[in-house]
């Protein structure tokens, strides 16, 4: 397929114009015109670029791309090496941040719910953009320690942090990645538990003082699934080749 075709399709599919974000969503670095193979990954780090280029990617699609608001505007060092590699090899880079988090079927939040079997996810409406925090009522209550165990089993890693009194959980809320700041919104909405990727010092006090169970399951670990699902969707829709490359990240 042609790059412009992919660009138009993705911008529309992920409704990028409707969501305010801290980085440009969609095409970030222009490469060759024709795309046969897509590589997906969580973050456009040097190792992902190298492996994608070795595996003959024409386009790399990531959740964490470049050009974040407030970052230095000068191209040097790490940033120069990454951009140079892409430009030298004429490979396209697409990044989808919040539009991918919130997509109702293929997004990070939706895919985490799918992996964890959390039923009928719906957006927590007190938080914007809609869908950045999702909630679900479990079909039967589950103890907090059982929740911790199943997160570890399904994500294949130890939790960073689990704050609870082994209380029964029924109404849960979650936000993949660095969503710890939303714990108060989840508590205010009456949720029994909040699950995200990272933890901050104040998150612990929020959990303890509001009696909401809290689980930090890894930023990378909770955000592997959206971009992978997007790549699989494109392969099915357009017959392009797709490979997901997981660059391990303990954070
Ligand atoms: Zn993230």
Topology:
Elements: H1 3-13, E1 26-29, E2 37-43, H2 46-54, E3 59-64, H3 77-88, E4 92-95, H4 98-102, H5 108-116, E5 122-123, E6 134-143, H6 144-155, E7 161-163, E8 168-175, H7 183-188, E9 193-196, H8 201-210, E10 213-216, H9 219-222, H10 225-238, E11 241-244
Parallel strand pairs: 2-3, 2-11, 3-4, 8-9, 9-10
Antiparallel strand pairs: 1-4, 5-6, 6-8, 7-10
The structure holds zinc ion.
Zinc ion is lined by residues 63-64, 177-178, 219, 223.
Description:
The protein has 251 residues and is of the alpha/beta class. It folds into 2 domains: 3-96, NIF3 (NGG1p interacting factor 3)-like (Udp-n-acetylmuramoylalanyl-d-glutamate--2,6- Diaminopimelate Ligase, Chain: A, domain 1, 3-Layer(aba) Sandwich), CATH 3.40.1390; 103-222, NIF3 (NGG1p interacting factor 3)-like (Udp-n-acetylmuramoylalanyl-d-glutamate--2,6- Diaminopimelate Ligase, Chain: A, domain 1), CATH 3.40.1390. It contains 10 helices and 11 strands. The radius of gyration is 19 Å and the shape is elongated. The chain starts with a helix and ends in a 7-residue tail after the last strand. The site of zinc ion has 6 residues, from strand 3.
């Amino acid at each position: 397929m042609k790059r412009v075709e992919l660009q138009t399709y993705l911008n529309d599919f992920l409704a990028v114009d409707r969501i305010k974000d801290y980085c440009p969503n969609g095409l970030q670095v222009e490469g060759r015109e024709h795309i046969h193979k897509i590589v997906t990954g969580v973050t456009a780090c040097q190792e992902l670029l190298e492996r994608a280029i070795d595996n003959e990617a024409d386009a790399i699609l990531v959740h964490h791309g470049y050009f974040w608001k407030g970052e230095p505007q000068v191209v040097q060092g790490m940033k120069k090496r990454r951009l140079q590699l892409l430009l030298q090899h004429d490979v396209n880079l697409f990044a989808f941040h919040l539009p991918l988090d919130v997509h109702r079927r293929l997004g990070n939040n939706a895919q985490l719910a799918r992996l964890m079997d959390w039923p009928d996810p719906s957006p927590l409406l007190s938080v914007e953009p809609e869908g950045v925090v999702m909630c679900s009522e479990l079909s039967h209550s589950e103890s907090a320690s059982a929740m911790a165990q199943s997160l570890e089993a399904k994500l294949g890693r130890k939790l960073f942090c689990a704050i609870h009194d082994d209380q029964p959980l029924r109404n849960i809320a979650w936000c993949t990645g660095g969503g710890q700041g939303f714990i108060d919104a989840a508590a205010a909405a009456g949720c029994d538990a909040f699950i995200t990727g990272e933890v901050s010092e104040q998150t612990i006090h929020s959990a303890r003082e509001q009696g909401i169970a809290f689980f930090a399951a890894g930023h990378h670990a909770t955000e592997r699934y959206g971009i992978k699902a997007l790549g699989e969707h494109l392969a099915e829709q357009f017959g392009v080749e797709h490979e997901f490359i997981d660059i391990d990240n303990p954070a």
